[in-house]
Q: What sequence folds into this?
């Protein structure tokens, strides 16, 4: 999980991300150090953010795979948000961590949940399969519960790492952004999360309240959450 601010003479960037790893934390740690730098060092980011973000995701995944002897065989989902001068928001994701924007109190999902059943065709075209065992979620090759991820070298030939990228203008009607891992979204709708987060202006307290509510609802998965207050 990362929350930071980059400032230059002409530009203020808010950088926010959730990295939800599986089979260890080495891949999330690598992402935290490298993904945003890979995005921002590309000069094309300032003219075509969508393309630049997509290229950086793919380039970072290739680097993770090339370092697999050190990083291990695990992987990670990711949802990232870049806020430019408090006015333009770019969100990208692979996997099932999610970004939800609040506009006039209405929840707007800014990411795409990459679930095996919804991308079955892509998985099967790559030679893989999707299992649907009773009492369990759908899994790629009976193992991974997402269809896109960083790393996961043993499954990579059947997975994708290209992100879905969305943008939004931030105005006076846009009050907050929630980034969270699937442990939150499995027990809470987008609108419920927005309603809880809007109850307090302190984003740290809002995030803690969301996590507490997910635990109260008996979430069985790990929960990471960031709430970003937007000035509009």
A:
């Amino acid at each position: 999980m990362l929350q930071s601010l980059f400032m230059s003479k002409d530009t203020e960037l808010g950088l926010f991300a959730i990295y939800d790893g599986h089979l260890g934390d080495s891949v999330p740690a690598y992402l935290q150090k490298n993904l945003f730098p890979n995005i921002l060092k590309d000069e094309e980011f300032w003219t075509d953010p969508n393309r630049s973000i997509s290229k950086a995701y793919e380039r970072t995944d290739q680097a993770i795979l090339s370092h697999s002897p050190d990083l291990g065989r695990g992987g990670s989902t990711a949802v990232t948000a870049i806020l430019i001068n408090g006015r333009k928001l770019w969100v990208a994701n692979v996997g099932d961590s999610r970004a939800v924007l609040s506009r006039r109190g209405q929840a707007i999902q800014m990411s795409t949940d990459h679930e095996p059943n919804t991308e079955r065709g892509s998985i099967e075209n790559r030679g893989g399969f999707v299992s649907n065992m009773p009492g369990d979620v759908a899994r790629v090759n009976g193992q991974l519960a997402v269809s896109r991820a960083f790393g996961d070298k043993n499954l990579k030939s059947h997975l994708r790492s290209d992100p879905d990228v969305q943008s939004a203008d931030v105005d006076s009607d846009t009050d907050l952004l929630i980034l969270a891992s699937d442990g939150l979204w499995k027990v809470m709708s987008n609108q419920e999360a927005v309603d809880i987060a809007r109850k307090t202006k302190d984003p740290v307290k809002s995030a803690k309240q969301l996590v507490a509510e997910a635990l109260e609802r008996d979430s069985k998965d790990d929960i990471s959450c960031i709430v970003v207050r937007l000035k509009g």
